[in-house]
Description:
The chain has helices at 23-31, 33-36, 133-155, 162-182, 198-206, 208-215, 293-300, 309-324; strands at 6-9, 12-19, 52-57, 80-90, 94-99, 107-116, 119-127, 187-194, 219-223, 230-237, 240-252, 256-261, 271-280, 283-291. By secondary structure, it is of the alpha+beta class. It has 2 domains: 6-182, Alpha-D-Glucose-1,6-Bisphosphate, Chain A, domain 4 (2-Layer Sandwich), CATH 3.30.530; 187-324, START domain (Alpha-D-Glucose-1,6-Bisphosphate, Chain A, domain 4). The strands form 2 sheets. The chain has a 7-stranded antiparallel sheet with strand order 1-2-7-6-5-4-3, with helices on one face. Strands 8-14-13-12-11-10-9 form a 7-stranded antiparallel sheet. β10 (230-237) and β11 (240-252) form a beta hairpin. The longest helix has 23 residues, at 133-155. The two termini are 39 Å apart. The mean pLDDT is 90.
Amino acid sequence: xxxxxxxLESGVVRFERLLPGPIERVWAYLTEPEKRARWLAGxxxxxxxxxxxxxxxxxxxxxxxxxxxxxxxxESAEGSSVPGTVTACDPPRRLAFTWGEGGDRxxxxxxxxxxxxxxxxLTVTHRRLGDEPAVWANVAGGWHTHLAxxxxxxxxxxxxxxxxxxxxxxxxxxxxxxxxxxxxxxxLRIVRRFDVAxxxxxxxxxxxxxxxxxxxxxxxxxxxxxxxxxWTIERREGxxxxxxxxxxxxxxxxxxxxxxxGMPQFSPNRDxxxxxxxxxxxGCVVVFEQSGVDIASELRALAPGExxxxxxxxxxxxxxxxxxWG
Length: 326
């Protein structure tokens, strides 16, 4: 399965899809009730800040392929409704609204559209989902399945029935997000927002000329940027030379990079670093994670309220990048 959503932080999931344009067509599938009902939910939407939203779900109508409704969703088999209020509306690029209302039981969904050479980049962010991984997985599984149907509709394909597609993908998110919650105390996680495009951040992580702004001028790079490719970085400080090295595990410019990371003069172990870069408006959000034996040991040794030295080092690097971008 591809196109998994990202857990940006506790209670925030994000998806990105590249869809066929033009951008006005995708906007119509978000805002016009008849078109929206073909992939998500029908119902009226007042396209102004403060406008009313009424999402009317009928999952059985999302595909011509018939399929039974699972018992746990039997109460909504004939349809269900979710109210909301528009919180942002900038046609055809940005739409946000609350999802449900009343007390603390509401969340917020933001759609961001960007015309690119290949079509339209759609970013969906769902916030305020609480602190239960099971809820994150349920919501992420829903968006994953609905967005697959939207892709099919825009490409002129017949979409799968909703629930047979949803249940296995929800189970996959339960494993991914449950593991994320269990590993929270053993994984260093940094979330930063930058006012530059994802391509700029990706270059700062992979192109030597751009990397020197945070690795310093006294650094040499040997990078084989491909899955399975090796990388080595040597940084000189006075009479000392520090070596970092590893292997690329995932290379998906400009949105995802994952690689092993080790410094053999200090430890024989290799941690894993993953970087997710998601467009947000004119900038982007970067989710950086380091996991493995060494970082887990560092985190477990911390006193309450103490921050790890590794985090300070990475944050300093991000600060230097940001300063270089002006």
